[in-house]
Amino acid sequence: MLEIVQLTRRLGPGFVLGPIDLSIAPKEIVCLVGHSGCGKSTLLRLIAGIEQPDSGTLQLDGKMLAGPGVFVEPEQRNIGFVFQDYALFPHLTIEQNVMFGLRKWSRDEAKERAKMLLSLTALSAMADRYPHMLSGGEQQRAALARALAPEPAVVLMDEPFSNLDRDLRERVRSDTLALLRRTNTTAIIVTHDPEEALSTGDRVVLMKGGRVVQSGTGRELYDHPSDPYSAEFFSTFTRVPGVYRSGQVHTVLGAFPCWQEVADGSAAVAYIRPQAVYPTVAGNALTGIVRSRSFRGEIEQLELIVDGLESPLIMRTTQHLDVVEGKLRFRIDEDAVFTFADPQP
After folding, report:
1. What is the CATH number of domain 237-341?
2. Domain named ABC transporter: which ranges (predicted)?
């Protein structure tokens, strides 16, 4: 559906987006994620035609939208856009907002299309209301209905849930994904929230400094990060320095299988998730001093001081632990430890 090849955009002297290579299949929902300033929203604007690339090509359903000597204007791209602030027209009713992009349709067809989308987004009873009369979640659904109205080939959504509180955000996100599925819509959703990225859509595209770092399903990126940045973006870790020898990274907490092929004797780092640390009574267990405990409802987080570690080892558990004299015996699940060559040996 969407094919991006070597797309670049220079934004001032200090930042270049790209080159970006990205293919998106029909009906696929892709989540672009990364820290603020990594280029997510710029890439969205390039796809929409709000900005023009410096080089590379962009094709939609086989039609060239941007490339050498070619630039199709936004209104001719058949792409819908849901902005972060929704950008609903305040002087138009919700029904009129949805019908805004249907000016080339007959009035009866436009009314029927708007009625159908308002029903799908559970906004039928609010068709005659104005945007300021709706809640944040209702405004978000109205903006999505408006974007879907002209039957676009792709819908772009820039941080669409960021203005909602946590409970509402999860519900609106679930409803939005269900609607995109029901309408067989190809969509690209931008977020900076790791949890939201992992739970949204078919594929996650992680960006850093204007480049794509890793792409895959949420589970693939979480379970098999390609580098330290990917690992740390999606989870909390304790970084434990070590040395690579004979296929393992040797640390003060033990030896762990190495994911990368590096020279023997090279500096390496083991990344240990809190969930990989387990309490145990085994005789060969490691021992730590509990520095702090934080009860968080379903889980409890502990910080352990361990001989040889500069920073505390973080542990999260669902068990109710009795800590005797501040000491805790623990083990580490080596299958849940990620190892990489030290980027700063």
Report:
1. 2.40.50.140
2. 2-234
